[in-house]
Specification:
- By secondary structure, the chain is α+β, with helices and mostly antiparallel strands.
- The chain folds into two domains: 16-65 and 100-185, no CATH class; 191-481 and 511-618, Peptidase S8/S53 domain (Rossmann fold), CATH 3.40.50.
- It has 17 helices and 31 strands.
- The protein is globular.
- The chain binds 2-acetamido-2-deoxy-beta-D-glucopyranose (8 copies).
- One 2-acetamido-2-deoxy-beta-D-glucopyranose binds next to loops.
- Residues 235-621 form the Peptidase S53 domain.
- Its main location: secreted.
- This is tripeptidyl-peptidase II.
Length: 628
């Protein structure tokens, strides 16, 4: 089947002038087209009509990574503490060797683009050449992919996207291309912070201008306060977290060599003034860091440092960003922090008739970071989306991209979601049956990353749940990614312990998540100059990331490799350095959800980090001031 048709001059007018870019001729191809990928439009998205003629699409073409299987083997070897190559992370050049597409794949794809009027000078390529990006008018993309793009509108929030649920390629390219987006992915990563907008009465700021909050930093005169002296469930502070997880006396030894990063999407940024006020009050020795951390702007990402408008304040813009930066600096200071603010497409101008230009944000970020000479060892991301909004082929490819980070010694942590096993009222399968099912969250379901759930309370910690906003630590099992080998004893044990409870609602052969957890309820956040409290695996993820970053500091100082992809080590030995959480559950989908139990569980993973214990398992000295 050919998609033919002549283009109107109006469309041509938008393309770079003077270049023989798009002739409007018939689609050229050596072989006939056949459907390459097809995925049902998720519930809640309704087709409104054809894509506007003047719409442009920034197309990302993922060429098959020639030796991904070998790369995966490398990943498992360098991450397995019993393997002789443990910790021998690969360089970007070595990674390129495994993922560079074959010459044939690369040539055939370029030939196809060129034959169809795409000026090859307008393409951009990743270093390994495994992604090609090009901005084209929608009509041209429709011809290239023999499809039709439509505008889809979200029934609840009115967001619009231009998507094509089914797309095709000439047959000879099927084996060369893994994924092309935007086509059929409806993923929209969302922030995982749930503000409790109540301003804290006892901790009310004296005044914004003074920038001073009166916050108890501990018991005066007590040098090594206990958890009960510094922790209060109504407001979780850095001193509480540092005391609870045992980092409070640790002095980072190699800041600079060791680094940490967080990712901002959806216009979030980290307001330097708020972060500074937070640190002045909750971590005074780190106060200067609020003005000093690095903010990298990617694809026109936002970095608004001027006062937020009433609408932005109403939307809670920057609560997520502030939470992430404040939590990380509050724990891992003076380890340098980088914030990656990733935006959408460069020249998108929204208007009432134009759909939101939703590029795939993780891809935009990955493509940028891969070109960087220095990438922090730990990267915290507090965003996720329902796995079933991402087509399996694309989820698989994005997950492969994350594997590249692990094999180079980076630890990627993602929040496990804020709705337990799924949002009550939204637990419907998208597979054509409308069956009731638990709803797993991506990227947490990707087996190459570490997923973080949330806890609350202190003695003992339990799985997080807040009845005031229905926040519950996310957890479950993937429908896309099979159980990875490192889970092959732990996870079946948990499933067996269910005795058939929830059978049919979750995929017992899938990758279980989260892997670990950390406090995630009623975090102190300075926002708009005041203290508020915030729930979320969004709080747990930067907290866990900061603790693991300090583990890296100790490892690097001792001349060892950083953690890199953590799960194989975690499931083999390091789990013993985590505080096991045994009560509470992943409340959601109108059920109590999976319960926390002794050992691993799909609501808190192996539990929360015990820093000194992790270091002792890894055989590294803490070099802390309190070492006796
Ligand atoms: C925790 O904080 C709340 C609110 O500030 C206070 O009323 C309560 O007494 C505190 N609890 C403890 C154990 O300090
Ligand atoms: C501990 O850290 C301090 C300061 O960072 C350093 O001077 C000292 O050599 C370290 N000691 C050991 C045993 O590594
Ligand atoms: C981001 O900011 C742009 C421009 O200020 C705005 O049009 C868009 O709606 C914002 N997106 C989100 C997700 O807030
Ligand atoms: C941060 O937020 C405050 C309070 O809304 C605002 O006054 C300020 O302009 C923002 N940016 C900076 C850099 O302080
Ligand atoms: C599933 O639900 C959608 C939306 O309510 C409906 O249009 C569709 O017919 C349902 N499908 C089945 C198989 O029940
Ligand atoms: C659809 O999803 C439900 C719930 O996960 C599952 O039980 C069922 O087997 C699936 N059906 C098909 C055809 O995939
Ligand atoms: C369950 O997971 C397996 C392994 O990833 C997958 O092959 C299968 O399709 C999944 N089943 C459903 C109903 O999604
Ligand atoms: C789990 O995987 C490990 C590593 O591949 C292997 O040694 C072990 O035998 C496996 N265990 C089971 C129960 O399959």
């Amino acid at each position: 089947m050919w998609a033919l048709g002549l283009l109107s001059l109006a469309v041509l007018g938008d393309v770079a002038c003077g270049k023989p870019v798009y002739t409007g001729d018939k689609v050229q191809s050596r072989t006939p087209y056949a459907v390459k990928d097809s995925y049902d439009v998720p519930a809640k998205w309704t087709r409104e009509g054809p894509a506007p003629e003047d719409h442009h699409i920034t197309l990302s073409i993922g060429l098959k990574q020639s030796r991904f299987g070998d790369l995966e083997k490398q990943l498992m070897e360098v991450s397995d503490p019993d393997h002789p190559r443990y910790g021998q992370h690969l360089t970007p050049e070595e990674v390129s060797k495994y993922i560079r597409p074959t010459e044939e794949a690369s040539d055939d794809v370029h030939e196809w683009l060129s034959d169809n009027g795409v000026d090859l000078d307008t393409l951009s390529h990743t270093q390994a050449g495994d992604w090609i990006t090009v901005r084209l008018p929608v009509k041209q993309v429709e011809q290239l992919l023999d499809t039709e793009y439509s505008v889809y509108k979200h029934d609840e929030d009115g967001t619009r996207m231009v998507r094509a649920p089914e797309w095709s390629l000439p047959r000879h390219l099927h084996g060369h291309v893994d994924a092309i987006q935007p086509t059929n992915s409806f993923s929209r990563p969302s922030k995982l912070s749930k503000p409790n907008m109540k301003r804290s009465s006892t901790l009310k700021p004296v005044s914004k201008a003074e920038g001073a909050l009166r916050v108890p930093l501990g018991t005066p005169g007590v040098q090594h306060p206990t958890v009960s002296q510094v922790c209060n469930t109504s407001l979780v502070t850095p001193l509480c977290l540092r005391t609870l997880y045992g980092t409070v006396d640790y002095v980072p030894q190699v800041p600079g060599q060791n680094q940490i990063a967080l990712c901002n999407y959806l216009n979030e940024t980290n307001n330097r003034s708020d972060v500074s006020i937070f640190l002045q009050n909750f971590r005074p020795d780190a106060a200067g860091a609020g003005q000093q951390f690095t903010i990298d702007i990617i694809a026109n990402g936002q970095n608004q440092q001027t006062p937020l408008s009433a609408t932005q304040l109403g939307n809670g813009q920057d609560i997520e960003g502030n939470l992430d930066a404040e939590t990380i600096l509050g724990i891992s200071y003076p380890t340098p922090l980088t914030a990656y603010n990733t935006g959408g497409s460069p020249d998108f101008i929204p208007d009432v008739n134009t759909p939101t230009d939703t590029n795939e944000p993780y891809l935009t970020w990955i493509t940028f970071v891969e070109g960087q000479s220095s990438v922090p060892q730990v990267i915290s991301t507090s965003y996720d989306d329902d796995e079933q909004t991402v087509p399996p082929s694309f989820a698989a490819r994005v997950c492969q991209e994350f594997a590249k980070f692990g094999v180079q010694g980076h630890t990627l942590l993602f929040a496990s979601g804020d709705s337990g096993v799924g949002p009550t009222g939204g637990c419907t399968s998208n597979n054509g049956t409308n069956a009731t099912a638990f709803i797993p969250e991506f990227p947490s379901t990707c087996p190459y990353i570490t997923s973080v759930g949330a806890t609350k309370n202190f003695a003992p910690e339990v799985a997080a749940f807040d009845s005031s906003n229905n926040f519950a630590s996310g957890g479950g099992f993937s429908n896309y990614f099979a159980r990875p080998y490192y889970q092959n004893t732990t996870v079946p044990q948990y499933i067996a312990s269910l005795n058939g409870e929830y059978a049919g609602l979750f995929n017992a052969s899938g990758r279980g998540y989260p892997d670990i957890s950390a406090q995630g309820q009623r975090f102190a956040v300075v926002y708009d100059g005041e203290v508020i409290s915030v729930d979320g695996t969004s709080a747990a993820t930067p907290a866990a990331s900061a603790v693991l970053s300090l583990v890296n500091d100790a490892l690097i100082a001792a001349g060892k490799s950083p953690l890199g992809f953590f799960n194989p080590l975690l499931y083999k030995t390091a789990y013993a350095g985590f505080n096991d959480i045994t009560s509470g559950s992943a409340i959601g989908c109108g059920t109590n959800g999976f319960a926390a139990k002794a050992g691993w569980d799909p609501v808190t993973g192996f539990g929360t980090p015990n820093f000194p214990k992790i270091l002792s398992i890894l055989g590294v000295p803490t070099n802390s001031s309190s070492t006796t």
